[in-house]
Amino acid sequence: MNDRILEQLHAVLDARKQAADPDASYVASLHAKGLNKILEKVGEEATETILAAKDATDDAGRADLVGETADLWFHSLVMLSHLNLSYRDVLTELEKRFDLSGHAEKASRQ
Predict the structure, then answer these.
(1) What is the Cα–Cα distance from 97 to 85, expressed in whole angstroms?
(2) Residue 73 to residue 10: CA distance in whole angstroms
(3) The pTM is what?
């Protein structure tokens, strides 16, 4: 497995955001349609991921869940890219939370 996949995907998403033809690139077409369309796709993929998780009772169901989760992550990365953020920002936030209990982290946001 390639541990650099997020960096490679980030580079592709950035290149498609910057210079790709929306008629030739799905990512470029999402950026051209704007944030609301990207958010719609994130919401759609989140719902599909939840539904797949409910049915992940066998190998086929778990494979479907992995595929839907990949779709959700992908569209979330497109959203971050559109907002000039990246997976690195999310990893930095997760790293800050690593030694913090979930209850304490949640309380700190209130």
Answers:
(1) 19
(2) 12
(3) 0.87
